[in-house]
């Protein structure tokens, strides 16, 4: 079964619809199956004290101004929806609060996503599971007991899901990938397990797919030097193209496990086995 490859645009569009469309174009060019965004109701997700903190950004000098600058409006998401349909690529989102999840239902996206920080938000989890759409559930910064609770919510709601092994360090050092968790999660929960990566290169994601990851999510960017907290944990379009190409060839690389003399070996065998 082919790996579902998701290009996480997230907030790397920096509030600019033109950048968002360029990122969608890059994901389509690379051969990704879908792009993903984020949706938050700022006054629900963050306290007034947090939003009023000083923070210099292209949009102003407070946290509120920075986060408002990064948040797309519903009209902008309507434009994203139309553009993805035009480009024939799926799109979906991770909501950080119940109201955002409800608001975004108008787009009838095929998938849902639970971001790692939301694994303890039981009301939001139940809201997502009630939609009964295939849901990707990232498992960064969580315990197995917390994942147990999430899995129960989705199974009780009869909502299809797959877990995504994840380390929520931005960017993640390769030596913290712990990819052996992919088969551990698969065995414990008897479900498909993907990988949501925040590393800088391609090798960890490729190995995750060799380990049997059924989905792969990577943050993407036009330029890692752009403004934004997620840019350093993102992959540029050129590397994304190479990664997708490598992943699409995994089945041929792995083969079928049957020991046979390949057609390409027969000439060498005849030449080098002089004693036969």
Describe this protein's structure.
It is a single chain. By secondary structure, this protein is α/β, with parallel strands linked by helices. It has one domain: Alpha-Beta Barrel (TIM Barrel), CATH 3.20.20.70. It contains 13 helices and 11 strands. It has helices at residues 17-30, 42-45, 48-51, 63-70, 74-87, 98-103, 122-130, 144-156, 181-189, 203-210, 237-248, 250-254, 263-272, and strands at 4-10, 34-39, 54-57, 60-62, 90-95, 111-114, 134-138, 161-166, 193-197, 215-221, 235-236. The strands form 2 sheets. Strands 1, 2, 5, 6, 7, 8, 9, 10 and 11 form a 9-stranded parallel sheet that branches. Helix 7 links the parallel strand 6 (111-114) and strand 7. Helix 1 packs parallel to helix 5 (74-87). The chain starts with a strand and ends with a helix. 37% of the residues are buried. The model has no long low-confidence stretch (mean pLDDT 97).
Tell me roughly what share of residues is in helical segments.
40-55%
**CATH-defined superfamily:** Aldolase class I
Largest sheet: 9 strands, parallel
Q: Quickly count the helices.
A: 13
Rg calculated over all Cα atoms: 21 Å
Secondary-structure element order, as H and E? EHEHHEEHHEHEHEHEHEHEEHHH
Roughly how many Å apart are the termini? Answer: 42 Å
Q: Total strand count, please?
A: 11
Tell me what portion of residues adopts beta-strand conformation: 15-25%
Average pLDDT metric: 97
User: What low-confidence regions span 5 or more consecutive residues with pLDDT below 50?
Assistant: none
Question: The CATH topology, please?
Answer: TIM Barrel
Give the CATH architecture. Answer: Alpha-Beta Barrel
CATH class value: Alpha Beta
SS content category: alpha/beta
What number of domains? 1
Shape: globular
């Amino acid at each position: 079964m082919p790996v579902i490859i998701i290009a996480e645009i997230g907030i790397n569009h920096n509030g600019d619809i033109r950048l968002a469309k360029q990122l969608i174009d890059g994901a389509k060019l690379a051969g990704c199956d879908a792009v993903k965004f984020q949706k938050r109701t700022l006054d629900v997700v963050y306290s007034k004290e947090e939003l009023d903190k000083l923070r210099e950004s292209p949009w102003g000098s407070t946290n509120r101004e920075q986060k408002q600058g990064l948040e797309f409006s519903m009209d902008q998401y309507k434009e994203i929806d139309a553009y993805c349909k035009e480009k024939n690529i799926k799109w979906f989102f991770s909501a950080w609060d119940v109201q955002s999840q409800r608001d975004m239902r108008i787009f009838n996206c095929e998938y849902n996503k639970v971001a790692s920080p939301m694994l303890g938000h039981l009301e939001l989890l139940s809201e997502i599971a009630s939609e009964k759409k295939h849901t990707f559930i990232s498992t960064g910064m969580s315990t197995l007991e917390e994942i147990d609770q999430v899995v129960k919510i989705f199974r009780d709601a009869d909502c299809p899901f797959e877990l995504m092994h994840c380390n929520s360090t931005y960017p993640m050092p390769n030596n913290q990938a712990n990819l052996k968790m992919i088969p551990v999660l698969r065995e414990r929960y008897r479900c498909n397990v993907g990988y949501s990566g925040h590393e800088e290169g391609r090798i960890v994601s490729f190995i995750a797919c060799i380990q049997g990851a059924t989905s792969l999510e990577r943050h993407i960017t036009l330029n890692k030097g752009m403004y934004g907290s997620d840019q350093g944990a993102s992959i540029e379009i050129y590397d994304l193209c190479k990664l997708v190409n490598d992943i699409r060839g995994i089945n041929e690389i792995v083969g079928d496990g049957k020991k046979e003399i390949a057609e390409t070996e027969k000439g060498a065998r005849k030449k080098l086995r002089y004693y036969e």
